[in-house]
Amino acid sequence: MPAVTDPVQETFPEDDRLYRIYWGGELLLPKPDNATSRVRFWLKEVDEDDREIKESPIVQVTESVGAIPRLTIGSHWRNGRKTRPKNSGPPRIEHLEIVAPPVWNIVRACDRVPDHPNFGGILHTWINRSEMALLFNTSTGQRVRGLEAWVVSARTIEEKREIIIPCYEIFRSFFGGTSDLSFALLSQTWDAAERKFIVGSHESASENGVNWHIDLANRVPHCAVPYLSWLHFDKTARKAANKIYAATVNQ
Amino acid sequence: MTSQRWISAAPPVTDQTLRIVANVVHLRSRNALLVTKIAGVDFPLKVATLSYTVDWRDIPVSTSAIDKVDIPQEAIPIKRPSTVSKPVDRRRTLRYFELPSVAVKFSGLPVPTRSERRKRFVPIPDQLQPKTILQERQVSVGASGNRPAPTAAQFTPEEERTIEDRFQAIKDLVDDLMLEGKIDEAIEYPLVRPAPAGAPTYCEFPSSLEVKPWPWSMVRNPIRRPRLALVLQLAVKDRLVYWIETEATGREYYRSLAVEMIKGGSLDERTLAALLDICVMNKGIWPHPLPLAQETVVSVKAYHATAKGQLSQNFVLLALARLESERAKIGEKH
Which residue, of A210, B97, B247, B281, has the greatest Cβ tally within 10 A? Predict the structure, then answer.
């Protein structure tokens, strides 16, 4: 098992090699020399066919939370720029219809799956180690446990197929639409952060649905409007956004 | 208990069906699908209209542009500067080149439209107050200062919508291409004269109130303001392509240009400014070849094509393919 490079890098490697973001989402609270919280990612070197180069060590990098909107698991980077392997095909894309339960099942990826008839008594974790090797020893003896990440487990409606979504990706796609929004939601609750983005709003109903209007605060980019309006007007979204800060920091 | 803190979030949808488009990896041992990237979401609520107003803003035009230009390129000119990593934290205030998540597409949600700013009675926090609040009347006259344009507040809603619909169509197209994996990334690139409308999404063409007859670079009706251009940076595999879309008024044709630096790397501020100047000199028609220093950029014009009343993806793909072949030709010469 390759060791993680040590010390942790604060920049994406600029060595002309192609890396794929293998896993990520650990939050590092601000240190004296950082202005903002940072997130840790693990990168793996791949070749132009998107095959992992096994002898190459896993690279740990941290980025400030403002960069979250751009950093997706599985994306490829070379010299700090997003790119794509030359010979690989498009990624597998699925249209998924998921049953959204009243309360989502948020678990750690390394937790045991409760008994399930299909598994014939074999003990499985939500993401098995055989699928993603995310337990490393660094040269300083620090244990890195990537599978302690929170994931959401759900099922599709038709095939009842199990879907695992990392909470990092849920945060990035549903909440962290812009740098500022990512930063705000991981620094305080949405109720407290909201007035930095929205200074006024009104909602009215019509035959075709609701009409939403928000007055953006100074310097808020208009691309944040879909995210802001959803978090502002929809009660479920507001509740979910308010939970993020406490659930992430109090662990 | 653990010393590690992991981001925890649940989807903002409960008790109904959540439809997503996602990149997935098959977990064989459990026959489950691991979602690595959510690319699209069916918006779970029925929203008829989505509108917003924009508050006053002071735009740090120079700081962001300088940061972008100052990235050391001299040592290895072909190497592209990193867009994501800096050894120190990003300054949170420097947000114009920090990017929205363009990768997630909310289908079923109406396109946000900007409406005329209403008088606002809600106080905003002290730290967010602009240093100098401009008076609306003073700005609309355009007499003082060297910026001839009125600010966003004087745009009529109808006019804004025309501009935004037009540029939004291009952005939607690019979003679709990203969903299909044909473009990796698209970001707005308002490096030169970011327009003070909404967010500095667009670049302004150079213009002056003093020049008469009115140059092409000015839009006169219903208000006088500089003409705008949408500049997008598209990452296509290893290449960086820049898409410049000019604003059209009345019966003019929309014109697009796809540009790529021959050396690779980002389009610098000076070149982009030169390109906009060339466009103005030719009254919006891109000349071919561009009268720029040799071996700076390779460019192709893109011709708009519509299918079923909508813009067709093909014209973007065709332009990208032609650009690649133009570049290959230059490579052969050397």
Answer: B247
Cβ contact (<8 Å) for A178 and B99?
Answer: yes
Contacts of A226 (CB under 8 A, 6+ apart): A177, B50, B106, B109, B112
Can you give the pLDDT at residue A219?
Answer: 72
What is the C-alpha separation between B131 and B57, in angstroms, rounded? 9
- Taking the C-alpha atoms of residue A167 and residue B5, their distance in angstroms, rounded to an integer, is 12
Q: What is the pLDDT of residues A95-113, one digit of tens each?
A: 999 989 999 999 998 888 8
Helix (H, G, I), strand (E, B) or coil at B265: coil
**B139-166 exposure pattern, b = at least 16 Cβ within 10 A, e = fewer:** beebeeeeebbbbbbbbeeebbbebbeb
Q: Given the DSSP bridges, would you call strands B105-107 and B32-42 parallel, antiparallel or unpaired?
A: parallel
B6 → chain A, closest CA residue: A26
Q: How many CB atoms lie within 10 A of CB B48?
A: 14
Q: What angle do CA B12, A213, A70 make, to 5 degrees?
A: 50
pLDDT surpassing 50 at residue B104: yes
- Scanning chain A, the segments in alpha helix (DSSP H) are 167-170, 179-185, 190-193, 225-233, 235-249
SS3 B233: strand
ipTM of the complex: 0.92
Chain A interface test: which of B8, B18, B120, B121 (most A C-beta within 10 Å)? B8
* Nearest-neighbour CA in chain B from A54: distance (Å): 19
In chain B, what residues touch A239 (CB-CB under 8 Å)? 12
> How many angstroms away from the CA of A55 is the closest CA of chain B?
23
Report whether A30 contacts A66 (CB < 8 A).
Answer: no
Q: Which of A133-147, B116-130, B257-271 has the highest mean pLDDT?
A: B257-271
CB contact A38 to B (< 8 Å): yes
Q: What is the pTM of this model?
A: 0.68
Residues in chain A with CB shorter than 8 Å from the CB of B39 are: 93
What does the alpha-carbon distance between residue B234 and residue B219 come to, in Å, rounded to a whole number?
A: 28
Chain mean pLDDT for chain A: 84
The burial of B74, by beta-carbon neighbours within 10 Å (0-12 exposed, 13-18 middle, 19 or more buried), is given as exposed
Using DSSP, state whether B111 is helix, strand or coil: coil
- Token look-up 């924009």 returns B54
Say yes or no for a CB contact (<8 Å) between B5 and A28: yes
Mutate to test the interface with B, among A96, A136, A202 (most CBs of B within 10 A): A96
The token duo for A134 is: 């995310």
Q: In chain A, what residues touch B81 (CB-CB under 8 Å)?
A: 80-81
Q: Can you give the pLDDT at residue A28?
A: 86
